[in-house]
Amino acid sequence: MGKKRKGDNVNGWVIVDKPVGIGSTTVVSIVKRLFNAQKAGHAGTLDPAASGVLPVALGEATKTIPYVADGAKTYRFAVRWGASTTTDDAEGEVTAVSEVRPSKEDILKIIPEFIGEIEQVPPKYSAVHVNGKRAYDLARENAEIELKPRRIRIDDLRLIEVSDKDAAVFEVDCGKGTYVRSLARDMAEKLGCLGHVCMLRRTRCGKFYAENAFSLEYLKALGHISKESNEFLPVETVLDDIPALAVTEAEARLLSNGGFLPFVSERIEPQGVSISAETVFQAKSNGRLTALVRVRDGFVRPVRVITQ
Fold first, then answer.
1. Which helix (H) or strand (E) holds 74?
2. Which of 47, 88, 89, 173 is flagged as catalytic?
3. Domains of the chain, CATH where assigned
4. Which residues make Cβ contacts (< 8 Å) with residue 87, sequence separation at least 6?
5. With contact defined as beta carbons under 8 Å apart, do 173 and 74 qualify?
6. First to last CA, the chain
7. How do 167-174 and 129-130 pair as beta strands?
8. What is the average pLDDT across 3-24?
9. Residue 133: its pLDDT value, please?
10. CA-CA distance, 118 to 139, in Å (whole number)?
11. Considering the entire predicted model, what is its pTM?
12. Average pLDDT, stretch 185-212?
């Protein structure tokens, strides 16, 4: 018999507005304790120096983290011109300086070059794996590492404000795997100067926005939080864009045990949705999410079982 987890059976999402100066895993630990949840995780890591939207998954919601982590994100960030750093942000040591400062016109001119699918080299201080180790661990050991460029997607990049000749504020809509620190570094290089991120805030993560997030101080002030509270969102919240497949209670139990079901297209909602071998459905019994499934060879097959 497996070891029983400590805590309550709490399943859902809490959207935190992470403050500067604290790591994402620490935030998860705090939320887990506030809800006395058995299990917790987060979608989309934020560095301690960054603030903003950090979706925290509790219980069975951890099985749906990819549907948030793989979604589009929006960041507001400031770039300080004139210096490069080891970490490509203000936390690192200055490695070089430059007297060159870009004009507003210069900045606007190069922005289109950073929109669309582009190649980007991650920062040396990042969680990218290199020969089985994290790049930031190797960087701290002063090891020579060469990170390969990766294909990323930037949907839009906007100049918000030129604070003064030494700094500018931007907003970017981007896909999974984008490093804003690399974006700032590369823009500075394109402008013929040096630069690093001096402020970073995530305002959107998937379908979650900063205006709907709760500050950590607010959540802590509530003390122990009930899963019936307004601060708690159901597991299905992140699956709104995924079609549903109606199943009976008996069929739900079969799926929960790894069994297969004959596929009946009339049970899909909405009707007419395009189906492929990779299409994921929500299997629902009386409105209750029971599994994430795919249809292959005419049968409904479970991908992830959701026990609520």
1. strand 73-81
2. 47
3. 12-71+208-236 (3.30.2350.10), 73-205 (3.30.2350.10), 242-305 (2.30.130.10)
4. 123, 124, 125, 181, 196
5. yes
6. 20
7. unpaired
8. 89
9. 62
10. 25
11. 0.89
12. 96
Distances (CA, A) of 153 to 54, 74, 171, 222: 21, 12, 14, 39
**Assigned token pair, 226:** 């009930």
Calpha distance 253→237 (Å, rounded) = 23
Single-letter amino acid, residue 26: T
Q: Could you confirm whether 186 is annotated as catalytic?
A: no
Q: Is 97 in contact with 210 (CB distance < 8 Å)?
A: no
* Whether residue 199 has pLDDT greater than 80: yes
Place of tokens 């070891």: 3
Q: Which amino acid is at 307?
A: T
How much is the pLDDT for 1?
44
Tell me how far apart the alpha carbons of residues 305 and 291 are, in angstroms, rounded to a whole number. 4
Mean pLDDT of 249-269: 90
Distance (Å, whole) CA 157 – CA 116: 10
From residue 55, alpha-carbon distances to 22, 295, 307 in Å are 15, 29, 20
For residues 58 and 31, the answer to whether their CB atoms sit within 8 Å is yes
Q: Could you give the C-alpha distances from 43 to 102, 160, 203, in angstroms and in order? A: 35, 27, 14
Separation of alpha carbons 122 and 182, rounded Å: 6
